[in-house]
Amino acid sequence: MRFVPLTILALALPALAHTEDQNPITAPSSLSIPLLGYGTWNLDKSNASEAVSIALETGYKHIDCAAIYGNEKEVGKGIAHGLKKAGLHRSDVWVTSKLWNDHHAPDLVAKGLAKTLENLGLEYLDLYLMHWPVGSHGGKNEFDYVETWHAMERLLHTSKVRHIGVSNFSPTEMAHLIKSSKTKPAVHQMELHPYLPQNEWVQWHHAHGIHVTAYSPFGNANPTYGPPSKDSPPPLLENKAMRRIAKEGGCTTAQVALAWGMSRGTSVIPKSGHAERIKENYGALECDLEYEDFTDIAELGKKYLKRFNNPSQGWGVDLYEGLEDA
């Protein structure tokens, strides 16, 4: 698929200046959303509560959830326990969740949020994302997001949501959403890692005051993406260049990947169910990269450019139009 330069997209967004900002998320330099978060995708129910609690006790103050993950009740118990153990208040922690495709009908949006809050045991979310620009109706998938977004906008007038945003949108979809709405997304969550840097797309968001959260910051380390094929790049955390950078900097490869992501002004949401890995990932805050490291990591995106999360074929829709490795 042809990559569309985002400078063209910028010219297509004259309405952006007239949309409403959702303060305090206005620029990458002044965010209330912590750059290092804890992800719960694929976090097994059997230890989800304990893992989330450990994350909060370790120092994480950003928890990323979603209805489709099927573990929000367990995550909610972990949040409650972790807050107590760490001596924190609810207001000290940023919690994100996401609306799934089967709740895109405007009259279902508030119901989806209510169920998520009930499962998490929370009174409000700091951020509520539309998980995909795709709605599922009667067993069929189709692009369906503008009216869904308008219903999400109405949630901002309640006490249940502080900010709203999107995930997995293409430039064209983002442009259409912004032109059709009063409120631009506060955050866009997308797949980002050294094998899929999407530099121009990230820079466009920064320029327009839309924060970016990177999911799958370890690339193909996520077991959901399956074992590597002949055409797959080497596992990111086993990449020779990443290992060398980690060794020279006194970090682990996981910490290098996370430090790289945060250095770009994006928040990152690594997941692990193991206490030692949760703590290791938190150590990325102390991992400093040199100029040469960024140069070497940039080469990985050129050599191994790869998007791992693309359900286009299975869903029968053309996702990520105009983006790298769509």
Largest sheet, if any? 8 strands, parallel
How is the largest sheet built, in terms of strand order?
1-2-3-4-7-8-9-10
Beta content comes to: 5-15%
Q: Rg from C-alpha positions?
A: 19 Å
How many individual helices?
12
Low-confidence stretches: 1-8, 10-18, 21-31
The averaged pLDDT comes out at 91
Q: Quote the distance from N terminus to C terminus.
A: 6 Å
Helix amount: 25-40%
The string of secondary-structure elements, in order, is HEHEHEHEEEHEHEHEHHEHHH
Class from helix and strand fractions: alpha/beta
Q: How many individual β-strands? A: 10
Instruction: Tell me the overall shape.
Output: globular
Describe this entry's structure for a reader.
The structure is a single chain. Helix 2 runs parallel beside helix 10 (275-282), helix 3 (72-86) crosses helix 4 and helix 4 crosses helix 5. The longest helix is centred in the first third of the chain and has 15 residues, at 72-86. The protein is of the alpha/beta class and 326 residues long. It has helices spanning 6-11, 45-58, 72-86, 106-120, 146-155, 171-179, 199-207, 240-249, 253-263, 275-282, 291-303, 312-315, and strands at 38-39, 62-64, 94-99, 127-130, 134-137, 140-143, 164-167, 187-191, 211-215, 267-268. The model is unreliable at 1-8, 10-18 and 21-31 (pLDDT under 50). The protein is globular. It has 12 helices and 10 strands.
